[in-house]
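User: My instructor asked us to take a sequence, write out its structure as tokens, and then describe one feature of it. I'm not sure where to start. Here is the sequence I was given:
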Amino acid sequence: MNDVIALGVLVLVFLIATVRSINMGALALVAAAVVGVTVFDVGPAEVVGGFPANLFVILVGVTYLFALAKNNGTVDWMVHASVRAVRGRVALVPWAMFGICAVIAGIGAATPATVAIVAPVGMGFAARYRISPVLMGMAITLGATGGSFSPIGIFGAITNGVVDDNDLPGNPALLFSMSVLSCFVITAVAFVLFGGRELINRGRDADAESEISETAVSASRTATRSAVTGTPDAAVERARAGGVDTEQVEDDDTRLNAERILTLVGLAFLAISALLLKFDVGFTALGVAVVLTLIYPDSAKGAVDKIAWGTVLLVGGIVTYVTLLQDQGTVDWLGTQVAGVGAPLLAALLICLIGAVVSAFASTTGILGALIPLAVPFLLTGQIGAVGVVIALAISSSVVDISPFSTNGALCVANAEPRERDLVFRQLMRWGMSLVIVAPLVTWGLLVAPGWL
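Assistant: Let's start with the prediction itself. The structure tokens for your sequence are:
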């Protein structure tokens, strides 16, 4: 009975955090303390002992390094470079937005922060150059989603960290590549359905080339330098109204200087060391950030305040609660019940479906931190490939973030032209709800059922 109560409280935490404006992690920490004392007779000290210190260091390290990259203009330079690369070819603009979102999220930005930076740029282009806002919104959101599963991205750090902590077999490179591929495929389908052929037929628009570049720099700079990243309309409106001096931005944000080069080198070193040398991501990211801070202290001003503390609290709280369940045997009990079903493939499909449904309305980071540990006993039976299930669960729980009920989808709706917002909302809702079913079925069919992972 205690196990059922504890699991019911976890479901209640997700439900309350979905319908009320409260950090899920803070709620989970309080729930862990209450459940520990009243249900399991465990004191606060033992509950706090389950706090994931390794994930804390990883999330702080990568988001701190990203904050430095925002402060010193490296992110602005990347946005500018990606847009300039299309050279006026309007058909490539959605793909440029996809790529830059993948890069920004891949170096440690939370996906909402990534979308908040790029959405004013991309949705502004969509309105100005007659690109489907639905296509642009999906390209932005899915690019951020796929990139975030890099070994130094937040989704990747959480997934790989939870896998390592629970002694499950993992494959960070395959997780990253399959996530990016799935997001690319969905974007490609949207490109075909939402006017991609017509965009290709336009060819190169010489008049748009310089204007696209200037608008990208202006809107990006406004978003990255503002006190609150993610007030969607303000960045584009200020850029359109000439609120940013374009010539000054050209001087400041379109050229590589020594600081930005060193930042890019540090990011490349972090990625290579995490993938090939198996260095600890968190401490390596902190090391790179500290070196940049020592050499360029001016760029570090305010960077600590821009660490994704909300995400750190969310992950810390959820994992602490789940660790309490593990320590008290609730997770083993749940795994035994799942294994008793006698149909491991069906159980794996249900896990992916649960992840997709909950994530469409609640936090993807919370789902990744909760469902993987809850599935550990079932996965350790060897009846089914753990790597395939983890990747399928990760993709199923994340691609649904295009839903307007998620932060990412909502940012894209907010950045659309006022007259198009209802259309964008409806279309993203349809796509998001469709992916709730399609993504688990496809990933399960390709990654889990064949048994090759």
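For the description part of your assignment, you could build on this observation: Residues 227-251 have pLDDT under 50 and may be disordered. Try explaining in your own words what that tells you about the chain.
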